Recover the amino acids of this structure.
């Protein structure tokens, strides 16, 4: 806390994160739980990226998009989780004002990008199922790269648009944040200003976009499922399996986002656990959902492990 010039108030230069619990026993359990999930999530997502890059059988638009989803999930896991694990055994869990703003920037940039990418993946499945003869022409590498660029651009705009309204807020009062990471709802509440309009802007930006995107995706997948049912063929079971994996990922990703951002003021204690789900559990579940329900991915994984084993044997006979 730094004193303001010519006044009795103080300027907040850092925030105190209250974390999840003060119980030492629970902190040890959480440390083990978070560490295992974080390492598993990073390894699984990186393994998917490596398998898709190295296996020419997976050089298709669907797997190109899946590789990018896994890459984004490594970012989702790494923005807040390492600090959360590090802070578990710290008495004073603090984060600087600049660090807090930086964390919010990356959370919403990566989150917004993943929202758009999930829409692109839904469009990819629509083209593959409804227009299979034109699939490779429509979903060319150039188109996929363009979609990816658009996704990152929209994610960046989504994040910057919110930061533009809060980056110049003054903080001269309480600096305790009942969370393990920084996000707009609790950040704005600590400002020394009337934040009603800012609260509405955050709800409109993050909340309504989450709800709108979620219902758009659900309607899209419903339309695709109806199309598959009408034109059922030998490949319909594979299409249904792929779609069910996509829908599961959409529900896991958007469920916590909608609850946290549609009614973020006042914040609820359950928000912290929903944030854990979005930051740690969902990135861990995505590789399991796509790998265990996808025969081609399982074959590619086996080929990758066999190739690595043979290489190891050649180096160390």
């Amino acid at each position: 806390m730094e004193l303001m010039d010519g006044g009795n108030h103080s300027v907040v230069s850092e925030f105190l994160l209250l974390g999840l619990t003060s119980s030492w026993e629970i902190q040890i359990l959480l440390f083990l739980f978070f560490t295992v999930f974080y390492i598993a999530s990073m390894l699984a997502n990186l393994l998917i990226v490596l398998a898709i890059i190295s296996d020419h059988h997976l050089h298709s638009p669907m797997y190109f998009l899946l590789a990018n989803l896994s890459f984004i999930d490594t970012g989702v896991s790494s923005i807040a989780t390492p600090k959360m694990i590090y802070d578990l055994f710290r008495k004073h869990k603090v984060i600087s004002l600049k660090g807090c703003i930086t964390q919010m920037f990356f959370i919403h940039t990566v989150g917004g990008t993943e929202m758009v990418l999930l829409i692109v993946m839904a469009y990819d499945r629509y083209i593959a199922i409804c227009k299979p003869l034109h699939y490779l022409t429509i979903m060319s590498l150039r188109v996929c790269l363009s979609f990816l660029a658009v996704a990152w651009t929209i994610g960046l705009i989504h994040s910057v648009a919110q930061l533009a309204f809060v980056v110049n807020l003054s903080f001269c009062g309480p600096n305790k944040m009942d969370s393990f990471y920084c996000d707009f709802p609790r950040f704005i509440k600590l400002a020394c200003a009337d934040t009603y309009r800012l609260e509405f802007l955050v709800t409109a930006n993050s909340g309504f976009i989450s709800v709108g995107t979620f219902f758009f995706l659900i309607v899209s997948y419903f339309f695709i499922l109806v199309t598959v049912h009408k034109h059922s063929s030998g490949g319909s079971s594979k299409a249904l399996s792929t779609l069910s994996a996509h829908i599961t990922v959409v529900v896991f990703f958007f469920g916590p986002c909608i609850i946290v951002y549609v009614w973020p003021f006042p914040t609820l204690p359950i928000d912290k656990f929903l944030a854990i789900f979005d930051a740690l559990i969902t990135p861990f579940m995505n590789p399991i959902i796509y790998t265990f329900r996808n025969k081609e991915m399982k074959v590619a994984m086996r080929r990758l492990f066999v190739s690595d084993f043979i290489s190891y044997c050649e180096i160390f006979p």
About this structure: The chain has ten helices and five strands.
